[in-house]
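S.,

Sequence below, as promised.
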Amino acid sequence: MHVTALVQRVGICLVVGLAVAACKAQPLQKPMRTTDIASGPNTIEAVRGQLAGTWSLVSLVMHSPEGKAVPVDASGTLIADAFGNLNVEYRLSEAGQKALASIGVTSPSPVISTTGRVEIDPQQKAIRYASPDDINRAFDPKLAAARANPFALERTRYYDFSADGLLKLATRHDNGRDAAVGMWKKGS
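The prediction came back faster than expected:
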């Protein structure tokens, strides 16, 4: 009986050992298939890197929808981070507010600020503020009124980095002409 019990125990140990070996750990899921992250000078990441930092306004020129241009006396700060957040603030002087009014743009405040997460389109050299609402919907009177403002969040910004280190950031009127054109210098 003693030998039989020993054989049974050894048999049980072998069965348990084989069962444990058969249940070896495996990943719970298969790895997700992904694509390589684009790299190079004309990618979202490259533009975010160029844009990231604090910029000071060098000049601001406003244009009427008909094309009349006026320089606007203003100071400003542009702050962009590596996560796609953009804060642009213009501080208009009294003369700057009068210049805006001369082309039909009124600002209720001498400080104009746009802040939010942006989407960058490197092929179009365009920056759009992301919105939880669909800003590209069919005609909406409130949206149309907001778009009349050259600084509105709903307006696409077009950027260009010049060889001398300046950033040109512009909005356009619905007719495609420039609306607000700011030149920015990094790190000042």
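The helical segments are 2-22, 44-51, 94-102, 141-147.

Coffee later?
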